[in-house]
């Protein structure tokens, strides 16, 4: 029997997909979407680990774990604020974070292991919690166009009213002129 070096066989890997950055409003809820692909069928030993690293780059903090079923962690800043929103059969391992706070700013990582697949990518998404949604160019254009429409409607209405009053005044003058003759 010939021995084939393991390096010649491609290693299976799990690929994980997330957004790179997400902005969300303070006090709202956010679904952190994480999906994956695997060269192997979904295993009973599939596991998902979500971690959080605050902006100050202190150590990673586990916030959620899945192995056959979702497990909420009973300690930490996200205790009672993280719920499972994934569907393993659809390769979706997303979570929801409830009641976002400025202290939630940082990087979330989503890691999926699907034995026998080993290695692969870890999804990273940077969250920025903002006080309110910034006023974008689209909002500015909408307000500008809406205001222009209102001004045009008011101008046309004023012109019609002025024309109607002039016509009535002219008719009155003609009546007075007819009576005097």
From TrEMBL:
* A GO cellular-component term linked to this record: plasma membrane
SMART domains the record matches = IG (SM00409), IGv (SM00406)
* Cell inner membrane keyword on record: no
Q: How does it sit in the membrane?
A: Single-pass type I membrane protein
Q: Where in the cell is it found?
A: Membrane
This protein's name: MPZL2 protein
In which family does this protein belong, per the annotation?
Belongs to the myelin P0 protein family.
Report the source organism.
Podilymbus podiceps (Pied-billed grebe)
Q: Which CDD domains does this one have?
A: IgV_EVA1
Signal peptide, first to last residue: none
Indicate whether Disulfide bond appears among the record's keywords.
yes
The UniProt keyword set, sorted, is: Disulfide bond, Glycoprotein, Immunoglobulin domain, Membrane, Signal, Transmembrane, Transmembrane helix
* Residues spanning the membrane: 138-162
């Amino acid at each position: 029997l010939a021995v084939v070096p393991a390096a010649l066989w491609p290693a299976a890997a799990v690929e994980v997909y997330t957004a790179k950055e997400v902005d969300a409003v303070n006090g709202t809820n956010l679904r952190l979407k994480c999906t994956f692909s695997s060269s192997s069928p979904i295993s009973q030993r599939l596991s998902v680990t979500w971690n959080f690293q605050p902006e100050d780059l202190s150590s990673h903090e586990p916030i959620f774990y899945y192995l056959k079923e979702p497990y909420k962690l009973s300690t930490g800043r996200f205790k009672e604020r993280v719920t499972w929103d994934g569907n393993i059969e659809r390769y979706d391992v997303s979570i929801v974070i409830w009641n976002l706070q400025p202290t939630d700013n940082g990087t979330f990582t989503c890691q999926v292991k699907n034995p026998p697949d080993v290695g692969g990518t870890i999804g990273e998404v940077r969250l920025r919690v903002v006080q309110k949604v910034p006023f974008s160019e689209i909002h500015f254009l909408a307000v500008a166009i809406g205001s222009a429409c209102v001004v045009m409607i008011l101008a046309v209405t004023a012109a019609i009213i002025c024309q109607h009053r002039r016509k009535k005044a002219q008719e009155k003058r003609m009546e007075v002129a007819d009576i005097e003759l």
